[in-house]
Each structure stands twice: as C-alpha cells, then as structure tokens.
Amino acid sequence: MSQEKNKVFIVDDDFFLLNMYSLKFKNRGMEVEVAGSSKEALDKLENGLRPDIIILDIIMPNIDGLTLLEEIRNKGLAGDAAVIMLTNQGLQEDIDRAESLGIDGYIVKATSVPSEVVDEVERIINKNKNQ
User: Fold this and answer.
1) Which of 29, 65, 76, 114 is deepest in the core (most CB within 10 A)?
2) Kindly report the CA angle at 127 between 54 and 131, in degrees rounded to 5?
3) pLDDT tens across 24-36, in order?
4) CA 100 to CA 10: how far, in whole Å?
C-alpha cells in the first residue's frame, strides 16, 4: 500500500524562492506545484488543482496574497487545504487580516530559515491529517 504524497502549492513572484522551496519540499517526499503570480494560482485552482497545503506570499504584483486568499475562500477553491502565509510582512494588521481569512500559519521569511519553514509545513499537514 503506497502512501499518498502531500501536495504543496507555493505562490510567490520570487522565482529563486519558488525553486529553492520546491527542492526542499521534494527532498522531503512531497509533490510541489508552483505559481509565479496570483492570476496563475487562481487559474490552476479553478482548473482542478487540489493541494493539501497552500503557501502564499503577500507582496505580489496585481493581486496581493491576502486578496488572493480572499478570492480562493469566496470561490471555494481551497477545499480543506491548509493555508500558510510566507511573507516578509510582519505588520499586525496583515497578520490579523490573514487570520480573519482562516490561515493555519503565518511565517515571516526574514526570521525563518528554509528548513524551519518546511518543518512548520509538515507540522501543519500532520496536525490537519490527525483531526
């Protein structure tokens, strides 16, 4: 009996970070899907992508990550996926808005090394699976 891989969907306009995190998550045995913009992320979700966890940056061109999350929630595109904000925005108002949209985690990039981010994602996935 094979264990299904966890599917991580990362949305960030920084392609260096997308590539680095893709590699980190794949090395932990996860499937990774990426989007370099909010529009691309919406397209993928509207076309049937169903990740276990969605990782969103806040600062992105055109549609920021919080507005994207609002759109995902309004359209019911996240299913029961966990959502983590991975951003350099540490303002309380951003955290409060994200929490009001039902996030499962909020990680400030500047205060976390990539392995800590991957550990936190795994912790949230495991917590959600055990609920």
Assistant:
1) 65
2) 110
3) 999 999 999 999 9
4) 21
Give yes or no for a contact between 73 and 102, defined as CB atoms under 8 angstroms apart: yes
Q: Which residue has the tokens 């090394």?
A: 113
CATH match for 7-126 among 1.20.120.50, 1.20.1250.20, 3.40.50.2300, 1.10.287.3510:
3.40.50.2300
- Predicted TM-score (pTM) of this structure: 0.92
Q: The tokens of 8 are what?
A: 């991580």
Q: How many helices (H) and strands (E) does the chain have?
A: 5, 5
Nearest to 80 by CA among 128, 130, 9, 8: 128
